[in-house]
């Protein structure tokens, strides 16, 4: 006997919301309603509501991309309920139905309904997880890319924009015209200074529409930074089957996640915020050191795992972690090249944090995939790895292990270009064509010409020399041989 997730949860044999969802109302609009939002921010709100608070902070999820129609169908069929399945290292599963999402809007067909929400005074926070690439930033200059095709479209079609930023800018304009105070914009993406990047994109976009509106946004709208953390893989059929088999729950789109979760937020919400401290969210004045630590240690290590692991033939993160050499590379990269760039971290046990990361990556229950980590890797390398190398170059510190990661990434795309990875393991990437072409170029330095991703890093003589040396060693001796030589052990 299985029970379907629906408005009626009476037959569902896993924990479900005990609060009255009918008494809740929407206070947050979220753009980029994917697995991470559902395992993290929506989970914290659900936890808060379960404690008897925050019923005025229900979530309205919004998808702006055509492929989000699948999420709309799943969420609407289930009254926006879904199962979060925490996967423990011993293989046990811990499911709970999350109830904090009250509505899902598919923007390509429901733009006016999205605007109705954005203008509603009850909506006081608009949050985003639209991926690193979603912020329309030119990696080379770091500035808002006003020539992006979707931006050019949106500026002339603000009633039916394609981007989350088109909705946010026009939503703020309509709110202002209606005399409603502006909402706070909360980026929850893995970007250094995510609030600041988001502000730059919103203001840059608004400036294309109306300079006075841009000035008003700059002066009046809050964009707090936050650090988010919870490894959340993509959902597979095996997840759906395990939930039905082991718990009798039929869910169209359950979310798997690791046990660990963290959210550190700058406390700048002029119209108020949910009292999330009651749900274990940390509020601080400056999140910068925590963000740096997480992005440069966790996310950069994820990139290394993808590009060192896949050529060896690994598919999963935990199996890659059982490779002693790759594990040792991560330990050394974090300690020798990433940690020295982090500055003061008051109250943080850095060696303990790094050891916990290795444990989290090794969780055999999580079944996270290398292909997920490599997806949109161009934007991820630009965000997680390149800034560390730049800081080390500027400070005269070693860059050999960072250069090895970049060289492994180039070799990975050379492998893709010659058809050496199984089709299922080739990651989607907006820069795929440029990376394949550059990686396959007979000149190994051509990869460094990807300035939209690397900026001018490839022009630095020391980095260039390290990269070329590491690429040659990788080509001749493979991943293990290159790690042995780089670590000198
Ligand atoms: N998955 C994780 O472990 C994790 C952990 C921490 C932070 N994050 C952050 O969350 C982001 C999304 O991860 P996810 O696991 O939810 O991925 P996902 O693929 O499950 O969902 C991504 C969502 O973002 C939307 N999206 C993608 N590009 C967009 C764009 N250009 N404009 C608007 N919407 C866009 C998609 O339509 C989808 O709704 C990551 O890029 C990262 O910044 C993820
Ligand atoms: O999601 P991305 O694109 O920022 O990066 C891929 C992974 O490193 C990331 O999803 C981690 O799993 C996550 O940041 C853990 O909190």
TrEMBL record:
The reaction(s) this protein catalyses: D-mannitol 1-phosphate + NAD(+) = beta-D-fructose 6-phosphate + NADH + H(+)
A Pfam family of this chain: Mannitol_dh
Highest taxon above the source species: Bacteria
Gene3D superfamilies on file: N-(1-d-carboxylethyl)-l-norvaline Dehydrogenase, domain 2, NAD(P)-binding Rossmann-like Domain
Mannitol dehydrogenase C-terminal domain segment(s): 286-467
Any one GO molecular-function label of the UniProt entry: mannitol-1-phosphate 5-dehydrogenase activity
Domain Mannitol dehydrogenase N-terminal: residue ranges: 27-277
InterPro entries membership: 6-PGluconate_DH-like_C_sf, 6PGD_dom2, Mannitol_DH, Mannitol_DH/Oxidoreductase, Mannitol_DH_C, Mannitol_DH_CS, Mannitol_DH_N, NAD(P)-bd_dom_sf
GO biological process, one term: mannitol metabolic process
Catalytic activity, EC: 1.1.1.17
Keywords linked to the UniProt accession: NAD, Oxidoreductase
Family membership: Belongs to the mannitol dehydrogenase family.
Protein name, as recorded: Mannitol-1-phosphate 5-dehydrogenase
Biological source species: Phycicoccus duodecadis
């Amino acid at each position: 006997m299985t029970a379907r997730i629906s408005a009626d949860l009476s037959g569902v044999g896993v924990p479900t919301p005990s609060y009255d969802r009918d008494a809740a109302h929407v206070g947050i609009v979220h753009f980029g309603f994917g697995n991470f939002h559902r395992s993290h921010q929506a989970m914290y709100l659900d936890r808060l509501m379960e404690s008897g608070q925050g019923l005025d902070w229900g979530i309205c999820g919004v998808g702006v991309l055509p492929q989000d129609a699948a999420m709309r169908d799943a969420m609407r069929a289930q009254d926006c309920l879904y199962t979060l399945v925490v996967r423990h290292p011993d293989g046990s599963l811990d499911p709970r139905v999350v109830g904090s999402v009250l509505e899902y809007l598919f923007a390509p067909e429901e733009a006016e309904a999205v605007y109705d929400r954005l203008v509603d005074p009850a909506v006081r926070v608009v949050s985003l997880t639209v991926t690193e690439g979603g912020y329309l930033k030119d990696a080379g200059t770091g500035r808002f890319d006003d020539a992006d095709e979707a931006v050019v479209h949106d500026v002339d079609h603000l009633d039916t924009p394609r981007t989350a930023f088109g909705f946010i800018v026009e939503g703020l304009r309509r709110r202002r015209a209606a005399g409603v105070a502006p909402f706070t914009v909360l980026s929850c993406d893995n970007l250094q200074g995510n609030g600041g990047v988001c502000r730059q994109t919103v203001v840059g976009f608004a400036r294309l529409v109306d300079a006075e509106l841009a000035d008003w946004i700059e002066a009046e709208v809050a964009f707090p930074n936050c650090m988010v953390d919870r490894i959340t893989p993509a959902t597979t059929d095996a997840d759906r089957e395990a939930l039905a088999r082991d718990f009798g729950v039929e869910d169209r789109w359950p979310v798997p996640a690791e046990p660990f979760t963290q959210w550190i937020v700058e406390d700048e919400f002029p119209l108020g915020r949910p009292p999330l401290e009651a749900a274990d969210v940390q509020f601080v004045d400056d999140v910068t050191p925590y963000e740096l630590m997480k992005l440069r240690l966790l996310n950069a290590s994820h990139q290394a795992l993808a590009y060192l692991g896949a050529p060896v033939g690994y598919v999963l993160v935990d199996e890659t972690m059982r490779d002693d050499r790759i594990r040792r590379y991560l330990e050394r990269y974090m300690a020798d090249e990433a940690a020295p760039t982090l500055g003061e971290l008051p109250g943080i046990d850095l060696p303990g944090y790094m050891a916990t990361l290795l444990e989290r990556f090794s969780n055999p229950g999580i079944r996270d995939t290398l292909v997920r980590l490599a997806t949109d890797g161009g934007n991820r390398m630009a965000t997680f790895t390149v800034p560390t190398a730049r800081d080390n170059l500027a400070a005269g510190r070693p860059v050999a292990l960072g250069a090895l990661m970049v060289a492994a990434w180039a070799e990975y795309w050379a492998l893709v270009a010659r058809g050496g990875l199984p089709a299922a393991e080739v990651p989607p990437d907006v820069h795929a064509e440029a990376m394949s072409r550059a990686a396959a170029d007979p000149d190994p330095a051509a990869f460094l010409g990807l300035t939209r991703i690397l900026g001018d890093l490839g022009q630095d003589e020391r980095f260039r020399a390290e990269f070329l040396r590491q690429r040659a060693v990788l080509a001749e001796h493979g991943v293990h041989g290159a790690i042995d030589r780089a670590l000198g052990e």
